[in-house]
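Hello,

I think I submitted the iron/sulfur cluster job twice by accident. Can you confirm which output corresponds to this input? Input:
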Amino acid sequence: MTVQHTISQLASQCVLCGLCIPHCPTYRVFHTENESPRGRISLFKALADGDLSLSDPLFETLDHCLGCRACESMCPSQVNYSKISDLSRQLLAETIQSQQSVKQKIAQSVLQNRSLRSLAKLSGQLMKKGQPSLAEYYPVDNAIGQVLLFTGCTGELFETQTLLDGIVLLNACGYNVLIPEAQQCCGAIKRRQGDLDGMYQQMHQNIEAFTPLLKNSQAIISLNNHCSGQLREYHVLMVGDDSETVAKHSFDIITFLQHALEKKKMSFQPLEHKILLHTSCSLKNVLQEESALQSLLEQIPGSGIHKLDAQICCGAAGSYRLQYPEIADQLLDDKIKQIVVYNKSTLLVSSNLGCSMHYKQGLKKQGLDIEIIHPVSLLARQLSLKKSFVDTGSF
Ligand code: SF4
Ligand code: SF4
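Support: Only one job matched these inputs. Its output is below.
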């Protein structure tokens, strides 16, 4: 069966009910059928069937999709939107790559290329001064198990402190933490670019790096919801026993800690601030573990939690905001309006780096001085038994 035939067949499962439409962020911005999931599915099908040829406006309409997957999680007919989109983007890969903004290309090259990442670190411009670097192994006394840390391509560069805070919490729960050296990007960036062969190559490298170590380790832990979602789908994206092994053992740190803390009670210092909680689309629509984040934060005494409306994407979507800043900013405005009513005694908690950076810009524009912090860093900060090498950081 050709790729075109597969797209056409998958798209035919859409019964055109339109229940997905109000949940689509681009429909919220443009209010047109073409900028809705139902519209895009019809356009992908028409392209695959050869009933439509690609034009610049058509490409832009299709490319506006943020990949939030809200449509997929709302669809009563279980239309596999992400597969239709992945295969269509593979056919459009050349156009996607030629249309990317210079900023987006630079950001992606730095993230994807190990030596460029090291250079960026060395330049000191992208790292906080004095930030500790990651060792490969963090043992703990009287360990109850061992986990493997997936650092991803953003982890080492932007999130070292968050990774260290995650290690402190995993250690405190009794787990040794090992960081496999040969790991690569999870493949999500290549997937978005339509470069499925490149994605499979990265997946293979990760499978090779992690699978042998799983003999002595319980889980692969990621601190980025987006990477966690991609790892959890390895068996869907690539057939094979080892991809299933990686998928089955992959957990977002939020969910893993929530379960670990049910077994091992820990004492957290009370928090005076109110928490505004942002839920990423990956956590809600791909991992479907939205409730775990709130349960985890409820471990901190005194933390009043107010959840921001998570129905619509904030517009960050990886490097999307570099390509379509107007759409990304318009989507963020709705979230900022929900935040504006709060004062400085508030923390914005987000478990996704891309969303946090997007919020940071939006809050700065509004002159709002609200700290944004990863839930893991907040928990490490409040952990009474905090280890000495931690100097919890925030954005
Ligand atoms: S909810 Fe599903 S079946 Fe209904 S229009 Fe959307 S994609 Fe099609
Ligand atoms: S993935 Fe998100 S942006 Fe794309 S069509 Fe679905 S709801 Fe709309």
